[in-house]
Amino acid sequence: MKFGFSRSLILGLSFLASAPFAATQGTLGSTSSGTFGVAANRPATPRQVQVLNLSDVSFTNSDHPDADNQGSEIGESMRFCLVDTYAGQVRLTVSTGNNLLSYTWWQLGTTDGVLVNYAVTVGLPGQATPIAASRNANATSSSLTTFAAVADRSSCGSGNLVAHVYVQSAMPNTLPARTYTDTITVLATPI
Questions:
Q1: Alpha carbon distances (Å) from 63 to 69, 101, 122
Q2: What confidence tens digit (pLDDT) does each residue in 14-52 have?
Q3: Backbone angles phi, psi at 188, to 5 degrees
Q4: Global confidence as pTM
Q5: CB 111 within 8 A of CB 179
């Protein structure tokens, strides 16, 4: 037994699958009206955010942040990127990993307990006063203001935000010659 479909039936089915509406045309007369459908499709993917281009920062007593700096503080700057698939506003929360703090400063530490006060700020490249992330009294995390994100990673360029990491003052020569460390977490939340 041989089965077959007519060409007009197949074309009709493919048209129905691709168009939920069928516009109608008006007729010639003293008045005329026609109709057309309108459909707005919400993307199937949910809103997503991503923090990109983070890199470890390392500095010595003679390093100063770049032109997006905190003045003459000792530290380093790093550009990074904030992506939001809806290109909207995103809130950043910055947290210290070692939970060492001294009122308004977080603390870099060594394995034998020697500490150095430091701070983190985040802002736009060239922003005169970035937002301090570590100056909430005795808090191990700080929720920052909202930042505009780019829609996809290809728009990041050299980074749409700058993080500055700097010590409270020049590291005293009396400090033991060691490496003082912490791990910072940057959490992006769409709003």
A1: 11, 23, 18
A2: 433 445 678 899 999 999 998 888 887 766 778 899 999
A3: -105, 130
A4: 0.67
A5: no
